[in-house]
Amino acid sequence: LSRSVTFSACHRLHSKSLSDEENLKLFGKCNNPNGHGHNYKGKELTSILLLLLISLWVSLQIDPVSGMVMNLTDLKEYMQEAIMEPLDHKNLDKDVPYFAEVVSTTENVAVFIWEGLQRLLPPGILHKVKVHETEQNVVVYKGEE
């Protein structure tokens, strides 16, 4: 079972523990003081969330009454709360408290989404989060192992 969402956000890759010169060298044009934006999305199976892959198929069964593993309406609401409300059309560095001290890389965006969904979904259901920053840049996060 998978569901996709697309959200738009801007950010600046900048570490407070580095000098301005070191930040520019490390992050290049992504260190622009005015930031830059992305439409975070996916094209293949999913943009943000993949649920119920091999490990999940083992631990969950289809409900015999509903015929579903999970109600997609519930999943949509969880994704709205964990992804769209905090991130869509936001400046990640200025509007999302999580990124006040964490560099807003796509890797850290995936962690943020994972943590938000983990709080909402039934335990053990989330298999991985997949975030497409661009056509070429994709991050897959499976939580801490």
Walkthrough of the structure:
The chain is α+β, with helices and mostly antiparallel strands and 145 residues long. Helix content is 34%, strand content 19%. The strands form 2 sheets. It has a 4-stranded antiparallel beta sheet with strand order 1-4-6-7, covered by helices on one side. A 3-stranded mixed beta sheet has the order 3-2-5. Helix 3 crosses helix 5 (106-120). The radius of gyration is 17 Å and the shape is elongated. The protein starts with a strand and ends with a strand.
Topology (SSEs and partners):
Blueprint lengths: L1 E2 L3 E5 L8 H8 L8 E5 L8 E3 L2 H6 L12 H16 L2 E2 H4 L10 H15 L5 E7 L5 E4 L4
Parallel strand pairs: 2-5
Antiparallel strand pairs: 1-4, 2-3, 4-6, 6-7
Helix pairs in contact: 3-5
How would you briefly describe this protein structure?
The chain is of the alpha+beta class. It is built from five helices and seven strands. The strands form two sheets. The chain has a four-stranded antiparallel β-sheet with strand order 1-4-6-7, covered by helices on one side.
